[in-house]
Every structure is written in C-alpha cells, then in structure tokens.
# Entry
Amino acid sequence: MTQPASVRIVDSADVSPQATLGDGTSIWHLAQVREGVTMGENCIVGRGAYIGTGVVMGDNCKVQNYALVYEPATLGDGVFIGPAVVLTNDTYPRAINADGSLKSAHDWKPVGVTIERGASIGARATCVAPVTIGTWATVAAGAVVVKDVPAYALVAGVPARRLGWVGEAGIPLVAAEEDAVWVCPSTGARYVETDGTLSKEIV
# Structure
C-alpha cells in the first residue's frame, strides 16, 4: 500500500506494505509495524517499538521507544504509550500445549487492551489483557494493570490501584470545597465524582 507523502519512515524501520498510516505519521529507527495495522494522522512510533498485526491507533498517538503493542490492541485518539510499555494479548500464556506439543497460532485466541482517548501509560507499565483504560486516565510508570481503569483515574502499583484522579491536562486533581467535586490546578476545569466514576462538569 502506498503511504501518504507526508509519512516519514526511516530506512531501518520495518513497516508492512499492508499497514495503513495516516498523514504526518513518523516511524523511527528499528520500529516494526505489522500487516493490517491502521494508524491515524500525526502518530509517532519510537525506536525499537513493535505494533502488532491489526492494531488500530487513532490520531495523534505517541508510542515511545521499545514499547510492545500486541494485537488486537486498540488505541483512541491522543493516547500516550511510554518507553518499554507492554500491552499483552495472552491471558493464559504457554509455549506448549498440555500434551507437550509446541503451541501454534491455532491453539490460542489473542485478547486485546483497549486504551481510550487521551489516556497515558507510563514507562515500563504492563497492561494485562483484556483490560480497558478509560479516557484521560493515567497509569503510573512500572504499574501492572489487571483490571479496567475508569476514566480520569490515576493508578499505580502492582497490581495497579487508584490513587486519585487526573484531569485532561494530566495533572492530579484537588478536592474542591463542595462534596464530590474535583478541580484541575492548572486549567481550573471542574469534575464531579459519582459512585466511583468521574465526569467533567458541563459549563
């Protein structure tokens, strides 16, 4: 498939001709982008990163150096994947079957990680499929995510647990004087907490 003229692929990258890359996307040294990948506009795939077969990425995503995005992951617009992050795809991994034979692609079914718009995954974090990371959530560096992360949540640890809330600017929110209201110290945006979920206040 012919890529748009504005796509930048360095010579050392391995990009399948069956991948679709949006305008303004850059693929850097030693990165591999497999067949069937669909990538939106203005994405960046860093050195040594791997994007698995059929992965779908929205616009303005950043996948940093040596991250591993295994199929069938789905990334919304504006998702940040930090250095050496791993998005897994095998819930019960084994190299061999119970009879000792080598597992093939027909012996297991990949399951994916879904990351919604604006969410960020910190360096060396691991998301164990199947999980969904909600919109604008932040996963701290080194965390291991084994269950779904709500929108705007800040999670950390092994296994990852919610420590607080973050706004769309990525900065931890602070409690307002009103009950169940949180405020971004950077933008002043207000968010309302209801039954363990957060939503942006409509003005």
Observations:
- The chain has a mean pLDDT of 95.
